[in-house]
Amino acid sequence: MPNKTDAMLKLDNQLCFALYSTSLAMTKLYKPLLDELGLTYPQYLAMLVLWEQDGPMVSEIGERLYLDSGTLTPLLKRLEASGLISRIRAVEDERRVHITLTAAGRKLKTKAAKIPDCILTAAQCPVPELMALTQQVQALRQRLVA
């Protein structure tokens, strides 16, 4: 007869695995959609931040994406090399770098607008259910990082 420890250590009972494997499936779903835009998934996330607010500092983008500068800086350099963003050092403090969209970066938003509908279709869930799930996962994240 299985005991409580056995049940607790079953892979399918692990929230971490459910989140991890779902994240892998989601990233796999996004890949062909993002390939059409010439973006990786992390680059897409950075562009989402910039489409919400053009001109944030690198540190602000890092806070939104939960990424450190060692991960974020190369990602932003690749976006700059692709002509989607510009990195502008603040005059008052050269350590502060603002990220702004180029015309190409702003134009890419129009092409990206179809992605959420594709994800909704693949998820086969009503929008309110997906929004509730998103809010639950965000609340969990906030508790874990606190």
From TrEMBL:
Superkingdom assignment: Bacteria
PROSITE patterns: HTH_MARR_2
Keyword annotations: Cytoplasm, DNA-binding, Transcription, Transcription regulation
Keyword Transmembrane listed: no
Principal location: cytoplasm
SUPFAM superfamilies, sorted: Winged helix' DNA-binding domain (SSF46785)
Domain HTH marR-type: 12-142
InterPro entries: HTH_MarR-typ (IPR000835), MarR/SlyA-like (IPR039422), Transc_reg_Sar_Rot_HTH (IPR055166), WH-like_DNA-bd_sf (IPR036388), WH_DNA-bd_sf (IPR036390)
Localization in the cell: Cytoplasm
GO terms classed as biological process: response to stress
A cellular-component GO term for this protein: cytoplasm
GO MF, one annotated term: DNA-binding transcription factor activity
Protein name: HTH marR-type domain-containing protein
Phylogenetic placement of the source organism: Bacteria, Pseudomonadati, Pseudomonadota, Betaproteobacteria, Burkholderiales
